[in-house]
Amino acid sequence: MFSHAPPYLLVTRRHLLFRYHRRLSAETGSGPSRPDRVDLWIAKLVSTIFRLSPSPAAAADRLAPLRQVLSPSVIFTALRRIPDPLSALGLFNLSRTAFGVVHFDAAFRFMICCLCRSGLHDDALKVFDEMVSDGHSNDGPFMEFLANSCLEAGKLDLAIAFFHKASHLGYFLQPYTLNKLLTLLIEKNRVNDASVFLRQHLDLQSLSVDTFSFNIIIKGLCKVSDLDTALKFFNQMGSYGFLPDTVTHNILIDGLCKADQVDRGHKILQKIQLDGSCVPNVVTYTSLIHGYCKIGKMKEAYGIFDEMIGIGVRPSRITYNILIDGYGKVGDMLSAISLYERMLICGCPPDIVTFTSLIDGYCRNEQLDDAMKLWNEMNRRELKPNAHTFSVVIHYLCRKNRLAEARNLLKTLNGRRDLLPHAFIYNPVIDGLCKAGDVDQANVVLLEMEERQCMPDKFTYTILIIGHCKKGRMLEAIAIFQKMVNSGCAPDSITVGSLVSCLLKAGIPNEINKVMLIASGRNSKLDIPRIVETPLGKSMGISVAI
DNA sequence: ATAGGGTTAG
After folding, report:
1. Where are the PPR repeats (predicted)?
2. Does the C-beta of A77 come within 7 A of strand B?
3. How far is the CA of A382 from the C1' of B8 (A)?
4. Which nt sits closest to A328, CA to C1'?
5. CB atoms inside a 10 Å sphere around CB A452
6. Residue at minimum CA to C1' distance from nucleotide B1
C-alpha cells in the first residue's frame, strides 16, 4: 500500500506517527482547539491530497496511510481549506465513514453553513440528520438559522420538512420563522399547503404560533376565496389561546367584501362594536366602504363614512379615494368632486390615485373635457401621472376617436423611463388606428412598444391580425399570427377564430391549414410546445363576426 | 413580520 503512496508521504510518515501519539493524550475530542502548526500542516496535506484525487475512492486509498493522524481537529482544519463545498462534503463524509472520524460539533455546523451558503440545502439537511444521529446537541439559534436559510433560498418544501424534523426533536421554531414560511407559501400560491401545514401542527400542538400566523393564513385563504376555511381558523383561534385582533377582523371583513358578502362583513363590524372585543379602526371602516362602493351602494358606503367620522375615526386618503372612485363609477361626479374638495379642506392632499379616479369618472360620464382639465390640474399640482392614469385617459380618448391626442400621450409615456408600460395601454391606440384603416401607423405603434421592451399580448396580436385582414393583407395577418406563436404568446379561440373566418371570407381556405399547423405548434420551423390554450376543434367551432 | 385605493381591451 505504502509503495503506491506519493514520495512525500514516505518521507513524513515517521514524524506524523510521532505527532499522533503525542496528541492522543492531549485531545479530548469534544471541541475544536486552535490547530497547532503541525495539525495545520497535516490538514494542508490532507486537503491537498483530497483535492488532487480523481475520485473519493482514490482519495480514500491515498489518505489511508494517514488514518492514524486523521483527528477531528485535522479534518476540521482541512475542511476549511477546501473552497468548493461539495468537495469539502466529500472529505467530511469520507473521513466519517472510511476513517471513523467523529466530527466536532463545529465541523458539522461549518459544513452545514457552507452548503447553505452555496444553495445546497438538500445536502445541508442530510448533514444535519447525521449530526443528530451522531448525538450532537442542537440549539435553537442554529435550527432557526437552518430554517431561515431554506426560506431565503425559496426551498419551501425543505423548510416544511425541517419544521417537522425540528418538532420531532422537541424544538419548536419561533412563530416569526413559521410566519415567514406561511407568507412565502401564500406568495407562491400554495395557500392550501400553508393551511394544511398549519392545521396539522395545530392539531399535534407541535408548533408555536401567534396571532400573526392566524392573520396570515386567513388572509391567504380569503385571497383564494376559501372563506369557509378562513372562518374556521378565525373561529378556532380562541381555543388555541389567541383572540382575533383588529387586523384579523379587517382581513376577514375585506375578504367577505371582496366575495360580495358585504352585509356579512358589516355584521362583523357591528359585532365588535357591540362586544368591544377589539376596536375598529380606519382600515376596518375603509374596507367596508370599499365593499359597498364595489356593488354601487353609495348610500350605504357614505353611511359608514359618516359613522366613522361620528365615532372620531379620521378617514384616510385611501378612504376618500375609494369613495371618489365609487361615485365616479355610478356616474355621480358631483358627489365625487365634493369629496375631493373636502379632502383639500381636511388637509388630506389628493394623490395620483385620487386624480386617476376623478379622471376615470369624468371619462365614463362622457365629460372628456372636464377630465382633461383635471389632467392639467394634476400636472399643476406636480403629481405625475402613472401607468394607470395614462391607461385611463388613452383608453377614453381612443374611444372618442381622438387618436392624435392619444398618440401624443403615448409619446409622453414613452419618454417616461420611470414607468413600465403595459400592453393594454397601447392596445386601444393600435385598435383605433386599425379601425380607422391605418394599419401602417398601427404597426408603427407596435414598433414603439417593442422598443420599450413592452411585450405585445394576445389582444395586441388579435387586433393587428383582424386589422390586416380587413385591409386584405392576409399574408401579413398570417405572419403576425406566426410571430405571436413564436413569441410564446398563446392565441385563444378568438384569435384563431377571427383569422380563420377572415381567410374563409377572403376565399383562401387553403391557408387555414397553414394557420392550424402554426397554432398546433407542429409547424416544422417551430419548436414551441403546447401553444394553443383551447382545443383546436373548439377554436374551429367558434364563428366570429367581422 | 400580518389589514384598506385607481387601468382590464380583441
Report:
1. 104-138, 210-244, 245-279, 281-315, 316-350, 351-385, 422-456, 457-491
2. no
3. 27
4. B6
5. 16
6. A176
Q: Kindly determine whether the C-beta of residue A435 is less than 7 Å away from any atom of nucleic acid strand B.
A: no
Helix (H) or strand (E) holding A156: helix A156-168
Distance A351 CA to B6 C1' (A): 11
- Has residue A540 got a pLDDT over 90? no
Residues 491-510/A with CB < 7 A to strand B: 491-492, 494-495, 498
* Cell numbers at A145, concatenated: 438559522
pLDDT over threshold 70, residue A419: yes
Which residues contact residue A432 at a Cβ distance below 8 angstroms, ignoring those fewer than 6 apart? A398, A401, A403, A406
Query: What are the sequence ranges of the domains in chain A?
Result: 316-383, 384-455, 476-546
pLDDT band at A33 (very low <50, low <70, confident <90, very high): low
A29: alpha, beta or left, given left = phi > 0 and alpha = psi -120 to 50? Answer: left
In angstroms, the CA of A357 and the C1' of B3 are apart by 23
Higher pLDDT, residue A288 or A204: A288
| pLDDT tens profile A119-171 | 999 999 999 999 999 888 888 999 999 999 999 999 999 999 999 999 999 89
pTM score, whole prediction: 0.84
Length of chain A: 546
Which pLDDT tens digit goes with each residue over A225-282?
999 999 999 999 999 999 999 999 999 999 999 999 999 999 999 999 999 999 999 9
A144 sits within 7 Å of strand B by its CB: no
Nucleotide nearest to A496 (CA to C1'): B10
Count of CB atoms within 10 A of residue A467's CB?
Answer: 24
Chain B positions with an atom below 7 A of a protein C-beta are: 1-10
Strand B contact at CB of residue A330, distance < 7 A: no
Average pLDDT (A305-327) is: 97
pLDDT in tens, A364-394: 999 998 998 999 999 999 999 999 999 999 9
| pLDDT band, residue A11 (cuts 50/70/90) | very low
**What pLDDT was estimated at residue A522?**
53
The dihedrals phi and psi of A535, each to the nearest 5 degrees, come to -60, 145
- A392 in contact with nucleic chain B (CB within 7 A): yes
Long-range contacts formed by A212-215: CB under 8 A, 24+ apart: A212/A175, A212/A179, A213/A175, A213/A178, A213/A179, A213/A182, A214/A242, A214/A244, A214/A248, A215/A245, A215/A247, A215/A248, A215/A251
Burial of A420 (0-12, 13-18, 19+ CB in 10 A): exposed
Separation CA A109–CA A198 (nearest Å): 29
SS (H, E, C) A383-409: CCCCHHHHHHHHHHHHHCCCHHHHHHH
Work out if A249's Cβ lies within 7 angstroms of strand B.
no
The residue type found at A472 is G
**Grid cell at residue A200:** 396539522
